[in-house]
Structures are given as structure tokens and as C-alpha cells.
């Protein structure tokens, strides 16, 4: 018997004692599961019930597919989503490599430039592109100044701007997903290939690329699923021929006569999303959704990881040989500097696309002009004064703060309990439970908002602060569970076992041992849950009222009907909020990067 097995057996009495003291940690899952069952699963089931309540179960669905408007919109949605996912993959991969190959302060700055936009509201990032591409925006002025255009033209409201805007919004998701895959690689494989005489391109194509195929696939599918439910960016940047399927749900929501048919639209979108996720889970495992491994399995040993890497490399290399052999013959003799500069140029372009619109909006917020123009004719604080003196904006601001604080409290209370239950218990099917806990992030927000509306009407929660906070907590809960589960897995359980063996109660163990260890993760989870609620627009469109308006809802109304620098002020304040939050969460992000690279 090995010494390792003896050590494991020696630890078992302490583990059993701790479990007995905790009674059954799996019970900690019940509050979150009960919450999701009532406010998440039940509305979705009711949505499906209404959609099949016509003269026949398929009557409403037959109408959806029989009307060219909806069928064309569905096909268009698939085309746009696939294109956006492909563009994100094309530009996201070299950007992930750029982060991985950078060192020191350069890596920190590049990673920050990618992460920062990811946490800024989609509405604000879309508004930034409206400013950038507007008639008085910097792009038009640049094209006129260099002689490409004789006068400013309308660059907005076409398919190209929709693709650009959606790609810019979803690029950070792709980059972060691929980077997590690249950071886990065994770098000795690439060095061995180069030492064996392979050229830089051959080493990339036959070693690095095959090993990162799972990460590329996960990133492509995550972006595709997110793009299917988009409607904010296409609505603001697209024209009549660029309407996506989710936009029809919001348009039909105000029609009293559309009940049944409206739910059928939502079920169609939900079914497509779940089908894509199911197929992806079959090949990648459902863990790609939360970026982890199966919770029922122990961490693989280094030898197992290398064996798995070799197996994936063999399969991926065969695919690469079949597809890319002509490319290897054509470009195989290029010097390594070509690949290096390609990564730098494409990564730099991505950073510019992500950061430049935000910088332009922040500068415009200090403009002295009475309309949107860049560069501003002068600098002034007039728009900040107007924002803070406008009772409507301030009321919406304080409403958003209250709702976000309540939502974060609900998400933390339920998410922390669920994370403890799923990490510390021996319950079977942990991955399935985790999938349920994080599944709200894959459900299109318009579908979730539509399903919640009927439930909230029944319980008179439409237009209530608590109802809105509870709805927002549906999306905040997955963030909390993922962050705190990762934090708990990093806690040395031997410390908890030692405290339990010496007579400490389960509450004392948590208060004195576990809580201090996960405090950075708890702070980060609280901030991200707060920010998710503070930025939430889609659910708010369905569940708010004329008396209850949040800041994103006010911003949405002004973006649709009038553009002025006050909107830039709101955007700037949110950017500062995100920067402050990320600074507080930096220890957690640094720990996550360290754990990912091991």
C-alpha cells in the first residue's frame, strides 16, 4: 500500500466527522434550487404550456413557421449568429495568444483592456458605436479628412454595423474562453516540436492549434448561443432588414391578442438555444458553460493531463493535416517573426475595437456642445451638472442602486449556500446540479422576461422593487455560484477538518476558517452580482412600470429617441464603477489566472 493511500485513509475519519457535524451539506442546495424552481423553471414550464394551448398543440408553432416574416427572421438570426461567432474566433484567437505570450505589466494592461469592456453594459457599448459611427462621429470625420468621402454619410443601420457591434460586444467572451484553454497547455510540447526541427507555423498547426480546439469550440458555441438572443444591438445599429428573432418577441409583447403565439415565439427561440447547448454538451461536456471540469471527478494528475493532451493532439493533428497541409507547404518556411507580428497586429486591432469607443464616449461626456460631436469644440461639466440636477435621472439612478443591492443580497445568500452544498457534499450528479444552477445564463433574456411576466402578474409583482430584484437575481446567482465554487475548491479542507476535530461547530468552522479564505471571492461575487442587476435591461423592459424606472431603462428610452451627451455621462459613470469593482476584484482574478495556468 502506498504512502499516499495511507494518508488518504488517515484523513477519512476527520472527513467523516466533519460531514457528520455538517449533518448533510447537500441540504445547503435546497434554498437556491427552490428559488430557481419557483421563479425560473415554473415560468418556463408555464410558457411552454401556453404555447401548446391552441386548437391543437402545434397550431401556434405552425403559424410561426408559416409566416415568412418570422421564418426569414429566424434564418437571419442563425446567419448573423454564426457570422459573429466566426468573426470572434478569427480575431479572438490571436488576442488570447497575445495575452498568453505577454509578460509583466504588458500582460496586465492587455488583459485589462479585454476584461474591462466585458463587464460594461451591452447597451452602453452599443451606444458607444452609435457615437463612433454617427454623422458627426470620428469615423466619418476621419474618412472625410483623408479624402475617402466628400461629406459625412450614414454608416449606421446596416448589416455591417450589426456584425461589427455584436462582434465587439462578444469578443471578450471568446478571448477569455480561448485564453483559459491556452493557459492550461503543457508548453514543453511546443518547445519539443521546435527543437525537433518543425517550423513555427508547423508547430502551431500541429501542436498548439489541436490542443486548443476544445477551447475554440467552447468559445464559438458560447458566442453563438449568446448571439441568438440578441436584440439590443441589432435594434440600435441595424435597419429593417436586420431584425433578429428576439426583436419580434419584444414587439409582440405589447399586443393583447398575441397570447399563445407570443409564447410560441419564445419557445422556438428557447428550443434552438437548448438544442445547440445539448449538442455542444455531447461533444465538449456541459462544463464548457461554466469553464470548469466535472465536479464529481478529482483533479487529474499531471501524467493524466499530459496523456489527455497527447490524445487530443493526435486527433487534432490529424484534422490539421487534412485541412492545413497545403498551408504548411506554402507558409511553413516563413520566419517566426511573421507569426509574432500577426498576433500583435490582430490583437492590437481587437484592443482598439474594444477600448476606442469607450474612450470616445468618455471624452464626449465633457463636451461643451449641445449635440453629439467628436472631437468636442470645448470641454465643460454642463452635462454632469444636468445629470445630477435632473430628478428623473437621479430617481432612476437610486432605483437601480436599491434594486441592484437587493438583487446582489439575494444572489449571495442563495449562491453561497449552493456553492457550499455542491463543493462540500458527496451528493451524486454534481455536474447536473451545477448545470441547473448556471443554466439561466444560456436562456435568452427575452424568453426569460416573457415567462416571468405571466408569473409576476399573477402575484402582483410587476413594477415592484422586490420583484425586479428577484428577477435580476436569477442571472446573478450563476455568477455567484461559479466564483464561490472556485474559491471553495481552493480552500485547504485539512484546515476545516482540523477545526472540526477539535470540537468546533460547523458554523464556527465556516466563520473562522472558510469565510476568511473565500472572502476575496465573496467580495468579487457580490460586486459582479450587483453589476449584473445594475446593468440589466431586458428583464426590466418586461417587469417594470411607468412608476419604476431604472437607469438602463432611462438610457434605453433616450438612445432610441434622442442622442445627447447626458447619455455619455451615464456611460462614463458606469465605466468608472466597473474599473473600481475590477480593482477590488483583482486578487480574485489573479488567483484564478494562477489556478488556470497550473
From TrEMBL:
> What broad class describes the main subcellular location of this protein?
membrane
Query: What family classification does the UniProt entry report for this protein?
Result: Belongs to the binding-protein-dependent transport system permease family. CysTW subfamily.
Q: Which PROSITE patterns match?
A: ABC_TM1 (PS50928)
- Bilayer topology: Multi-pass membrane protein
* ABC transmembrane type-1 domain sequence ranges: 74-280, 397-588
Q: Which CDD domains match?
A: TM_PBP2
Where do transmembrane segments lie in this chain? 26-45, 82-99, 105-124, 162-182, 220-241, 261-284, 349-374, 394-420, 432-453, 465-488, 509-531, 563-585
The protein's organism comes out as Bradyrhizobium symbiodeficiens
Keyword terms of this UniProt record: Cell membrane, Membrane, Transmembrane, Transmembrane helix, Transport
Q: What is this protein called?
A: ABC transporter permease subunit
Q: Which PANTHER family match?
A: ABC TRANSPORTER PERMEASE PROTEIN (PTHR42929:SF5), INNER MEMBRANE ABC TRANSPORTER PERMEASE PROTEIN YDCU-RELATED-RELATED (PTHR42929)
List localization entries.
Cell membrane
Amino acid at each position: 500500500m502506498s504512502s499516499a493511500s495511507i494518508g488518504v485513509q488517515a484523513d477519512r475519519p476527520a472527513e467523516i466527522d466533519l460531514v457528520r457535524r455538517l449533518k448533510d451539506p447537500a441540504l445547503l442546495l435546497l434554498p437556491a434550487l427552490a428559488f430557481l424552481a419557483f421563479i425560473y423553471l415554473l415560468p418556463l414550464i408555464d410558457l411552454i404550456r401556453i404555447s401548446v394551448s391552441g386548437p391543437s398543440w402545434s397550431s401556434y408553432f405552425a403559424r410561426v413557421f408559416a409566416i415568412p416574416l418570422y421564418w426569414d427572421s429566424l434564418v437571419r438570426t442563425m446567419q448573423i449568429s454564426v457570422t459573429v461567432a466566426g468573426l470572434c474566433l478569427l480575431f479572438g484567437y490571436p488576442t488570447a495568444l497575445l495575452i498568453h505570450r505577454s509578460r509583466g505589466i504588458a500582460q496586465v494592461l492587455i488583459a485589462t483592456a479585454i476584461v474591462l469592456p466585458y463587464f460594461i453594459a451591452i447597451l452602453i457599448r452599443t451606444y458607444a458605436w452609435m457615437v463612433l459611427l454617427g454623422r458627426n462621429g470620428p469615423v466619418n470625420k476621419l474618412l472625410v479628412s483623408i479624402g475617402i468621402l466628400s461629406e459625412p454619410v450614414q454608416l449606421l443601420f446596416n448589416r455591417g454595423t450589426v456584425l461589427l457591434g455584436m462582434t465587439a460586444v462578444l469578443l471578450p467572451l471568446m478571448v477569455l474562453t480561448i485564453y483559459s484553454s491556452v493557459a492550461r497547455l503543457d508548453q514543453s510540447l511546443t518547445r519539443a516540436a521546435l527543437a525537433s526541427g518543425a517550423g513555427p507555423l508547423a508547430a502551431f498547426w500541429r501542436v498548439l492549434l489541436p490542443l486548443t480546439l476544445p477551447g475554440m469550440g467552447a468559445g464559438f458555441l458560447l458566442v453563438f448561443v449568446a448571439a441568438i438572443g440578441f436584440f439590443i444591438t441589432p435594434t440600435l445599429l441595424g435597419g429593417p432588414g436586420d431584425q433578429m428573432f428576439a426583436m419580434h418577441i419584444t414587439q409582440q409583447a405589447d399586443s393583447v391578442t398575441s397570447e399563445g403565439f407570443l409564447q410560441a415565439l419564445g419557445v422556438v427561440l428557447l428550443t434552438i438555444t437548448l438544442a445547440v447547448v445539448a449538442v455542444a454538451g455531447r461533444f465538449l461536456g456541459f462544463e464548457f458553460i461554466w469553464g470548469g471540469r466535472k465536479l464529481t471527478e478529482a483533479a487529474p494528475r499531471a501524467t493524466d493531463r499530459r496523456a489527455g493532451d497527447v490524445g487530443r493532439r493526435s486527433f487534432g493533428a490529424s484534422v490539421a493535416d487534412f485541412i492545413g497541409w497545403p498551408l504548411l507547404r506554402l507558409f511553413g518556411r516563413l520566419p517566426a517573426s511573421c507569426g509574432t507580428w500577426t498576433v500583435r497586429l490582430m490583437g492590437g486591432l481587437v484592443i482598439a475595437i474594444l477600448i476606442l469607443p469607450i474612450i470616445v464616449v468618455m471624452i464626449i461626456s465633457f463636451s461643451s456642445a449641445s449635440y453629439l460631436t467628436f472631437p468636442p469644440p470645448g470641454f465643460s461639466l454642463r452635462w454632469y451638472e444636468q445629470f445630477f440636477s435632473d430628478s428623473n435621472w437621479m430617481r432612476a439612478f437610486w432605483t437601480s442602486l436599491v434594486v441592484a443591492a437587493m438583487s446582489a443580497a439575494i444572489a449571495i445568500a442563495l449562491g453561497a449556500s449552493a456553492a457550499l452544498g455542491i463543493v462540500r457534499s458527496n451528493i451524486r450528479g454534481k455536474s447536473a446540479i451545477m448545470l441547473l444552477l448556471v443554466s439561466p445564463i444560456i436562456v435568452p433574456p427575452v424568453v426569460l422576461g416573457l415567462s416571468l411576466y405571466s408569473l409576476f402578474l399573477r402575484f402582483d409583482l410587476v413594477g415592484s422593487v422586490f420583484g425586479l430584484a428577484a428577477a435580476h437575481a436569477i442571472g446573478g446567482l450563476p455568477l455567484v455560484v461559479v466564483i464561490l465554487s472556485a474559491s471553495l475548491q481552493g480552500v485547504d479542507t485539512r484546515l476545516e477538518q482540523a477545526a472540526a476535530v477539535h470540537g468546533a461547530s460547523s458554523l464556527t468552522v465556516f466563520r473562522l476558517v472558510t469565510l476568511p479564505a473565500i472572502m476575496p471571492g465573496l467580495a468579487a461575487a457580490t460586486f459582479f452580482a450587483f453589476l449584473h442587476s445594475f446593468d440589466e435591461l431586458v428583464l426590466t423592459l418586461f417587469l417594470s412600470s411607468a412608476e419604476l424606472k431604472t437607469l438602463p431603462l432611462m438610457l434605453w428610452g433616450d438612445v432610441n429617441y434622442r442622442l445627447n451627451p447626458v447619455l455619455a455621462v451615464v456611460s462614463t459613470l458606469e465605466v468608472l464603477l466597473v474599473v473600481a469593482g475590477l480593482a477590488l476584484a483583482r486578487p480574485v482574478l489573479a488567483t484564478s489566472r494562477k489556478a488556470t495556468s497550473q
